[in-house]
Amino acid sequence: MDVFRQLKRFYWRERKFLFTSVLFLILATIMGLAYPLLLRYLVDDIIQAEKFDMIPSIALLVAGAMVTKACFQFIHGFTGGRLGNRVAFNLREALYEKLQYLSFQYYDRARTGDLMSRLTADLEAIRNFVGFGFAQLLNMILMVTFGAVTMAFIDWRLTLITLITMPIMGFIAIRFELKVHPAFRSIRLAMSRLTTAVQENIMGVRTVKSFAREPFEVEKFSERNNEYRENHIETSKIWAKFFPALEMVANLSVVVLLSAGGWFVIKDWISVGDLVALFSLVWYIIGPMWGLGFHINNYTQSKASGERILEILNQRYDVASEQDALMMESEQVKGNVEFRDVQFHYPDGQPALKNFKLNAPAGSIIGLLGGTGSGKSTVIQLLMRAYDVKKGAITLDGVDIRHIDLNNLREQISVVFQETFLFSASILTNITYGCKEVTMEQVMHAAKLAKAHDFIMELPEGYNTVVGERGMGLSGGQKQRIAIARALLKNPKVLVLDDATSAVDMETEYEIQQGLKELMRGRTTFIIAHRISSLKHADEILVLDKGEIVQRGKHHDLVVQDGPYRHVFDIQFADMPEALRQGRKVAN
Ligand SMILES: Nc1ncnc2c1ncn2[C@@H]1O[C@H](COP(=O)(O)OP(=O)(O)OP(=O)(O)O)[C@@H](O)[C@H]1O
Q: Which residue in 41, 349, 385, 395 has its CB near the most CB atoms, within 10 A?
């Protein structure tokens, strides 16, 4: 029940539907009791008393009761459906919002397929239960209670004898619930593993094909598919074992009623009409008891789904704004960035940055160079507060970034990532992503600076061309240029180019840099690059190795020092004529 208590805020605000639905369910159940009572009246007071002229009026009464019950059921079903949909809507909104604000650390571990299955299958299970399952469970309780009370009203001794088997039914039902709940959890888990496999396969289809690993992927899927099937079979076994037992006990009570009831009629303790009414009423109890397994199953399934949804909703934000976080006016921000003795390691990881010190005055260009895994991207992740530093501090215009509102901080920074992500929308939508009021001229200006305008104009529908999922249909370089245009349009105080020109050829890179030069003016720019040509104009270049700064300075100083920078330079400019290499100080 704790799950539903925790989810209360999502259904309690829809309580008018909840109460209406429950009220009309009660009314419909009460109306249902009219049948056995009318039946008793028909047998004892009309047929046995031979008052056949009353049959049309009793038939009309039954028809009236039937229509009224149908109306009550309609209102109950309608409001129940509305309740289920609204609760599912509220939950979906809350889940999506939560997913938006969860930190990078959460996504390091999260699996897309699993999240998708929580947002779809689990949510559907909750919708079903809140809309229908809960009402059915309640209906069952009401029918059993009202049925038993009416039976007792006719003859309490016979009622007691008949319902003697009910505790056994309850016992079987509870054992069933205890077994079926874990089984349903496993089914859900297996389902999410299955979705993860499909989703990863689609995302990585190019890798799979280029390695000709289709058979391996089929095998991998088959294993998970098998696991899913096995889980279902296990659940069916539980079902198959308990259901007939439940049915047998239910039928036993009918046998008891008919035997004892017959004896009561012979003894003249009850009338024939009473027995007919009791026989009809006992089904009023057995019917829902029959479905007990199904209702419990529905309940446990939605409880398992609720647990998985709550797991997301109760997830802690690893990085969040402080309560009275500072809001910086974008126009007032200068862009002075300082890393003060920063230490950082990823959760369960080796140190990724050690004693990292950097002062980037407003408008300066900082280059970051280093081998793979040396910590370059980590510097940027920390600047954006994707993670919080473990020791030391990072400041923007002298303010510790942990005191600045998270969104406000990220509004001041534009990042062009190594891997470009484009939404499956038009190029225009992709470039203007995150910008509220921009004119077409501003978009084109940014695209021209990013050297994207010309190729966009060659596309069939220019800026309105819709790109495929993750930008399929565009080359890596084209995607990068769109991403650069997007970053420029945001007009940030701090610009980060994380290996942003790695996918374009040297010539285009040169052209983009000419455009960027103008743009970098007045902004603090961080350039992460593997090519020396991308960062040789930086005001300060930091060379990283295993999270430590091993060299720092300007290009012309570093290139004449013995060290990793010169080493990289020599490799990259190995084809340069010796004369030029000798005169590199002059050339650069
Ligand atoms: N999300 C993460 N979780 C755990 N460890 C990480 C994560 N991201 C990076 N690391 C580790 O932190 C270290 C620094 O990684 P980082 O991505 O900053 O390197 P990099 O210099 O940008 O490399 P590259 O040039 O290959 O992008 C590496 O050892 C890496 O394995």
A: 385
